[in-house]
Amino acid sequence: MIKKKYWIFYFSSLLLLLAASAYPIYMGIKTLNAYIENGAIEVANYPKYIIPYTPMCIGILVVAVLFPLLYKLFKKYSMVAGSVLGVAAFWLSEIGLEQIKVITGYTYETTIEKIAVPLES
User: Fold this and answer.
1) Per-residue pLDDT reduced to its tens digit, 54-107
2) Strands (E), the chain
3) pTM higher than 0.70 for the full model?
4) For residues 24-49, b (16+ Cβ closer than 10 Å) or e, as one string?
5) Which residues pair with 103 in a beta bridge?
6) What are phi and psi of 41, to 5 degrees?
7) Which of 11, 55, 68, 116 could form a disulfide with 93 if both were Cys (CB 3.0 to 4.6 A apart)?
8) Where are the domains of the chain?
9) 6 — phi, psi (to 5°)?
10) Could you give the CA distance from residue 31 to residue 29 in angstroms, rounded to a whole number?
11) Which residues contact 51 (CB under 8 A, 6 or more apart)?
């Protein structure tokens, strides 16, 4: 009975954290998708708040998902191990998101020039 209550509490906590983190994670995925497609992202499409919030949510979610494993491995030091893991996940995602190129505008060629070549007879 205790194990069942634990797992209900664990998964409901994960769902609440995921719900609270949904928008920052969505914006991070959207930004990364635009960066991968174009090699850069336009300033107008780059949310200014993505840098602190998306990495924080990633760090919190990583620790929350792995906490039962951390507790099994480290017992009374699981909180310290979780803190170290969360900070590492935060900094890795922070550094990764800071590497995104942000540009002021795209310069695409939108017209195709047709060259008329006279036929020689």
Assistant:
1) 999 999 999 999 999 999 999 999 999 999 999 999 999 999 988 888 887 655
2) 41-42, 102-103
3) yes
4) bbebbeebbebbeeeeebeeeebeee
5) 42
6) -130, 140
7) 55
8) 2-103
9) -60, -50
10) 5
11) 94, 97, 98
